Amino acid sequence: MKTLFRHLRAYALESVLGPLFKLLEAMFELFVPLVVADIVDRGIASSDRGAVLRGFCILIALGIIGIVCSITAQYFAAKASVGCATRLRRDLYAHIEALSFSDLDKIGIPTLITRLTGDLNTVQSGLNLALRLLLRSPFVVFGAMIMAFTIDRRAAMIFLAVIAVLGAVVAVIMRASVPAYKKVQSELDAITGTTRENLSGARVIRAFRMEESERDKFASHNDALYRRQLFAGRISALMNPLTFVILNTGIILLLRTSGIRVNAGGLTTGQTVALYNYMTQILVELVKFANLIISISKAVSCMNRVDEVLAAEPAMTFPDAAPEEDPAAPAVEFRGAGLRYSAGDASLTDMSFRIERGETVGVIGGTGSGKTSLVALIPRFYDATEGEVLVNGVDVRKYPADVLRRKIGYVLQRASLFKGTIRSNLLWGSPEAGEEEIAAALAFAQAADVVASKEDGLDSAVEQGGRNFSGGQRQRLTIARALVRRPEILILDDSASALDFATDASLRRALASLDYKPTTVIVSQRTSSIQHADKIIVLDDGRIAGIGRHDELLETCPVYREIYDSQYRKEA
Description:
Elements: H1 2-8, H2 12-44, H3 49-98, H4 101-107, H5 109-133, H6 136-151, H7 153-200, H8 202-207, H9 211-237, H10 239-263, H11 269-311, E1 332-340, E2 346-355, E3 360-365, H12 371-376, E4 386-391, E5 394-395, H13 401-407, E6 408-411, E7 420-421, H14 422-426, H15 435-444, H16 448-452, E8 461-462, H17 471-484, E9 489-493, H18 501-512, E10 519-523, H19 527-530, E11 535-540, E12 543-548, H20 550-556, H21 558-567
Parallel strand pairs: 3-10, 3-11, 6-9, 9-10
Antiparallel strand pairs: 1-2, 1-4, 4-5, 7-8, 11-12
C-alpha cells in the first residue's frame, strides 16, 4: 500500500478537499434532526405555522448546501483516484517492460494482464469510495452519538453500545474477507490464462477437435472461480443482515427508553424524534460503511497483487556506460556458456565457439535441442547461467541494453506485427529510416511485392498480430524490419519456415549481397537453408554435436547426416 500512498501524494490537495467537503456535507446533515425536533416541539406542538415554515426553509437550505458539498467532494475524489490509478498503471507497465524474459516466464503473462487491467480498476474504484466515505461514515456515526449525548445521556448509552458491537462485527468480517478476495483474484488469473491460450490457439484446438476438452478445462476453472467468489460473497453478505439486526435492536431499545422518559417528562416528543433520526442516520451510514469495507477489501487485495509485481526486482541489470570494444575480437564468442530455465534441467551446456565478423553461421538441430535458447543469449534476452557470451570482445552483461540491442537485428521464430501500418512496423527497426532505406530493406527481404500488392502501399493497415497477412508475408515483413536497422549482427531464428524454397533461396542470396556485411546467424530446420553457410553449428540435447562446413559435417557428424538424410533421402 506504500506505493499507492506515494502516488497519492501528487494529488494531496484533492485527497484533502474530497473528504473535507464530505465532512462538511455530513456536518450539515447532523443538524437536520435538531431542526426537525424544533419543528415538532415549537411549531407543531404549539401550532406555530411560522416556526414550521422557518424550519422547513432551513431544511431546504441544508439540503442545497449538502448537494453542493457532495458534488464538489465527488469531483475531487474522482480526480485523485483516477489520477493515482493512471500513475500506478504507467509505473506498473514500465516495470513490466523492464522485466527480463525469465521474470515474465516466472510471473506469468495472464496474471500480469489481470493486474494491469482488472486489479488496477478495482483499486481505482476502492480509492474513490474511500476518499468519499471512509471519513464521512465514521464522522456521521460518532457525530450522531455525540449529538445524542447532548440530548439525553441515558438514551445515548444505547448508541455507544450499538457502535461498539458494530465495530467488532465490521473488523471480523474485513479480516476474513481480504484473504478470500485474494484467492478470487488468483482464480481469475487462471481463467484469464486459459482464455488467452484458447483464443490464441483456436485454430489448433479445432484442427485436433479438442473443443470439448478445452470447454471442460475452462468449466473447471470457472467452477473454481465460482466457488471462491461464493465463499467470499457469503462472508461479505453477513455484513448487511448483522448490521440491520444490531441497529434495529438498538432502535427498539431506544424507543422503549425514550418512551419511558417522555412519560416521565425527561424528554420531549421532538427530542425522541431527533434521537430516532440519529439512530437512523447511523443505520444508513453503517450500511454504506459495510459496503465500503467490502470494496476496500477487494481494493486492498488487488493492490497487494500489484505491489507483488512492483516489488519483483528484474533479474537483469544493465550498466549506464558503453564499454570499450576490441576491434580485433570476433563478432560473437561463447565461452563455456550454459543456460538453465528456473529449476529445470540445463537447456544448454558448455557452448564454446567463435563467430567472426561478417561470417554467416547456421544453427541446426532436432526439436528441443536448444537452438532458440542459444541465439537468445546473444541479445541477452536471457543471461547465461554459466560461462559468458561476448559481442565484439565484451561480455554482453557489460553493455547498456539500448547499445547492445541496437547492434542486433533479431527476427523471432514467431513473426509478430503490431497494429498500425506497414510503415510504422518497419520503422521499429530504425525510427529515422527514410524511403530509400525502407525500400532497400523490403527488396532484400523479398517483401517488396507484399507492399506493392496493397492499395495504400507502405501506409496499408496492419491489424493486431498482422492477422490480415499470410504467414509468409508476416515473416518477410519482420525480416525487413530487422534489415531497416542495418544491424552489425543479424539473427534469423527459423524466420523463413513459412517461405517456399525459391523465396528462401532468393532471400539467402540477397542477404549475402548486403553491402554492410553483417554477421548473420541463421537458425533453421532445413539443411538447404544453411548448407552454404561459412560455419554450421549442430546441436543435440543442449550440447554441440558438431561444428564445420556442410561437406565436413556430412562426413564427421552423425546428427547432421541424419537430419540431412531425413530431408534428402535417396531411393535405393
